[in-house]
Amino acid sequence: MTITTSDEPEAGTVRLVDFVAYELARAGVTHVFGVGGANIEDLYDAVHRGGTVRGVVAKHEFSAVTMADGYARTTGRLGVVAATSGGGAMNLVPGLAEAYASRVPVLALVGQPPTGQEGHGAFQDTSGKGDSFDAGEVFRPISRFCARVDDADSFVELLPRALAAAQADPRGPAVLLLPKDVQQARIRLPGRDQVPAPAQASGGSIPAPALTSGGPTPTPAHDLPIPAPTAPAIRLDSAALAKVSDILRRADRILVIAGEGVAAADARAELAELARSLGAWVAVTPDAKDVFDNRDPRFAGVAGVMGHANVEDCLRRADVCLLVGTRLPLLARGGLEQALAATDVVCLGPEPPFVSATALGGDLRDALRAVTVRLPSRPHDCPEHSGPLPTVMAGPASSAARGRTIPYPQAVAAVQAALPQDAHVFVDAGNAGASAVHLLPAPRHGRFVVALGMGGMGYTFGAGIGAALATGRRTYVLAGDGSFFMHGMEVHTAVEYAAPVTFVIFNNDAHAMCALREEFLQGGVRSDDLFRRTDIAAGVAAAFPSLDVTGAENAAQLRNALLRGNTGIGPAFVALDCDPEEVPPFLPFQPFAEATGSTQHADSKESPDERRVVHVG
Fold first, then answer.
1. How many Å apart are CA 138 and CA 136, to the nearest integer?
2. Interior/surface letters 250-281, b for 16+ CB within 10 angstroms, e for the rest
3. What confidence score (pLDDT) does residue 613 get?
4. Can the peptide bond before residue 170 be classed as cis, meaning omega within 30 degrees of 0?
5. 65 vs 90, 106, 595, CA distance in Å?
6. Whole-angstrom Cα distance, residue 508 to residue 581?
7. Who contacts 564 (Cβ-Cβ below 8 Å, separation ≥6)?
8. 311: Cβ–Cβ under 8 A, 6 or more apart, which residues?
9. How far apart are CA 9 and CA 312, in angstroms?
10. Beta strands, E only, 438-591
11. Burial per residue of 100-123, b for 16 or more beta-carbon CB atoms within 10 angstroms, e otherwise
12. At what angle do helices 408-418 and 431-439 cross, to 10 degrees?
């Protein structure tokens, strides 16, 4: 390879950043999300000039990562984020930590000062030289691959390694630190004078974008190549497969608990087929409501602290609990520990579970298919069960709030009535999120995403925009006012790019889940988490005159506003008032709420004194 940095471009060479844009397009990437800056501007220039990959400028780097995250979760493709050095780079950390914990494939391209300035007081120096800190040491714990690119030669080798690491199990972020002078370096690739062979798709050959000295030639997004598998499938262990299959064959009653790994592996059909073969009940983890039809007679509900009592009832009646695509973290197993300890547990998935189990690792789709063919071909109905009956919430309403607030069950019912069945739903943290997970059925043909890896507030604003721009589908963002005040100004990004996102803000003028924890667990509410009244709808309407904004005063207005938003092309925004004292369907709160008569399970036969206190946090 020949590299030149002269002012006069050498014939037959391209800038390294043009090569980056070209390779991203070849990998099936359609969007790069981020925030610009001096040490990443050359990459944005290459994306703009190339015209194949679309650059999307966010308001904050955290939201840019979540845009890439939402893009990846809804398309199955690699999400890409680009940011400059210094504070821009550090703002990526919480978003990449979420992608790491939730196994989401994201590539972060992070600008750095020129190599000649490292260790000499460069602005935003994070090289580790000259008493600066080392950005690589920050990113390595939250990435599957992290490397500083010292020269263009090494980048040509490092990029495919980063792409492969992000998309291999366990999936997660890959980070490349790119000094400005390396980005600007001009390269000639030996043996690459001709356009590489196009990737193959089910419909035949798809032309790759041309790489010329002027940069990539634009290719329509729908004609982009479909990425090939990045890693060979791992063969299933025959002994483990035989043992798991034997346990399932001998069981009369089986509860399946399915997780986000089913969505990541696109294994919904295989899961449904196995459930039919087993005659099993199927529950889902809070972050995986969309992996099984919520209206299917087999659907038992959501497992864990935001879930349904029926799941525990089915688990106690089951001979075997089969985990599929989940390690069953605390939020998914809270309240189920005693029943799990008394039940044989089997696990299918590439990573071992957090509970004792007989495990079959390897590719999840392969495992599901292999187990299914070893079962008797006698699909049958599951045993009777009550289904996902919701916790009845009759929480206290303060006199100041009564009359102008919409209770969570009514608000969620209005969302359900308007939600298109091909929409994507992104649910944020807090009381509103717990209510949506518990009460809102997942759309039949869209994602239902809850970011529980880090559980960071404000994740949904960027993620919903990334999903909407990637798929073109109407996407719902359900968030509280606390989350809105953190990252809600990404509404501006949705307006700028005409993203088909409907933002639904549940405003209780509080960090209400924190306030309830204080009341129930710490002996009294502090005023810190209760805020003065804010009219969010009026503020957003004033800031964005072209945006369809509604301040809904009742469930009917909420539903009508959502239906109107469904017919629009770009974003819509609806805010409604909720009561900060309303207790959400969150298991750690239930014993305290039941003691005051404010909450009860619709099918509960236990007295409040018999219920266990489940601690989260």
1. 5
2. ebebbbbbbbbbbbbbebbebbbbbbbbbbbb
3. 63
4. yes
5. 12, 8, 42
6. 9
7. 548, 572
8. 255, 257, 283, 300, 301, 302, 303, 336, 388
9. 68
10. 448-450, 475-480, 501-507, 548-552, 572-577
11. bbbbbbbbbbbbbbebebbeeebe
12. 60
Sorting pLDDT into bands at 50, 70 and 90, what band is 591? Answer: confident
Beta bridge partner(s), residue 282: 256, 299
Q: Are 245 and 375 in contact (CB under 8 A)?
A: yes
pLDDT digits (tens, 9 = 90+) for 62-120: 999 999 999 999 999 999 999 999 999 999 999 999 999 999 999 999 999 998 877 78
Which pair of structure tokens corresponds to residue 29? 């990437």
For residue 525, what pLDDT is reported? 74
> What does the buried/exposed string (b/e) look like for 320-332 if buried means 16 or more CB atoms within 10 Å of the residue's CB?
bbbbbbbbbbebb
Dist. CA 300–CA 282, nearest whole Å: 5
598: its two tokens: 């404010």
* Of residues 24, 17, 15, 9, the one with CA closest to residue 44: 17
Question: What is the torsion angle, in degrees rounded to the nearest 10, for the CA atoms of residue 440, residue 443, residue 449 and residue 450?
Answer: 10
The DSSP secondary structure of 364-393, one letter per residue, reads HHHHHHHHHHTS-S---PPPP----PPEEE
The mean per-residue pLDDT over the stretch 293-313 comes to 97
**611 half-sphere exposure, CB direction, 13 A CA radius:** 24
Residue 592, number of CB atoms within 10 A of its CB: 18
Question: In the 8-state DSSP scheme, what is residue 294?
Answer: T
Residue with tokens 């020269």: 151
Q: Give residue for tokens 């009759």.
A: 394
Distances (CA, A) of 331 to 30, 259, 273, 483: 34, 12, 27, 20
Residue 99 is encoded by which pair of tokens? 């992608």
Bridge partner list, 179: 112
Amino acid found at 282:
V
Cα–Cα distance between 175 and 177 in angstroms, integer? 7
The structure's pTM equals 0.89
Q: For 549-587, what is each residue's pLDDT tens digit?
A: 999 999 999 999 999 999 999 999 999 999 998 999 988
Which of left, alpha, beta for 317 (phi over 0: left; psi -120 to 50: alpha)? alpha
Show the DSSP H helices in 279-407 as ranges.
309-317, 330-333, 337-341, 364-373
Whole-angstrom Cα distance, residue 79 to residue 174? 10
For 398, half-sphere exposure in the C-beta direction (CA atoms, 13 angstrom radius) is: 12
Residue 394 exposed, middle or buried by CB count within 10 Å (0-12, 13-18, 19+): middle
Q: Write the DSSP string, 187-215.
A: EE-TT-SSPPPPPEETTEE-PPPP--TT-
Q: Which residues does 435 contact at the CB level (< 8 Å), separation at least 6?
A: 393, 408, 409, 411, 412, 584, 585
